[in-house]
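Reagents: none. Just compute today. Protein PROTON GRADIENT REGULATION 5, chloroplastic-like.
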Amino acid sequence: MAASLTAIGCKPLPSSFHGSWATSFLAGEEPALLSRTPVPTSVRVARPRRPSPRMGNVNEGKGLFAPAVVFVRNIVGRKRFNQLRGKAIALHSQVITEFCKTIGADGKQRQGLIRLAKKNGEKLGFLA
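Predicted 3D structure written out:
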C-alpha cells in the first residue's frame, strides 16, 4: 500500500503501528489470556417504570370553565353533581343525534361528533 501511495506522489501517514490487525495485542498480553476473559452473554436492563393508569380526566383542573365546575361540584356535592352532569351529557348527545338526522349523517359520523364534543369538553374544563 505504501509503495502504491508513493508511486502516485502521496506520502504515507506516519504511524506507530507495525504489523497486521490479526497479530496486534495490548502491551504484554498473550492471545491465550485474551481468550480466557469471560464475555457476558447477556446484559440485563431494567425496564422503565410506567406510571399506574389514572382514572379520570387528564385535564383535571385545567380549562376555562374548570374553576366554575369545581365550585358547583363542591356546593352541590359529588353524587348530585355527577347526576346533573350525566343528564347534561345525555341531552347534548341527543342534540348531536338530531343534528345528524337533519343533515343526513350516518352513525359513524355521529359517533365522531360525540367523541369530538367530549374532547372539547375536557379541554374547556367541563369534565373537571
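The CA atoms of residues 12 and 20 lie 16 Å apart.
Action item: order primers for follow-up constructs.
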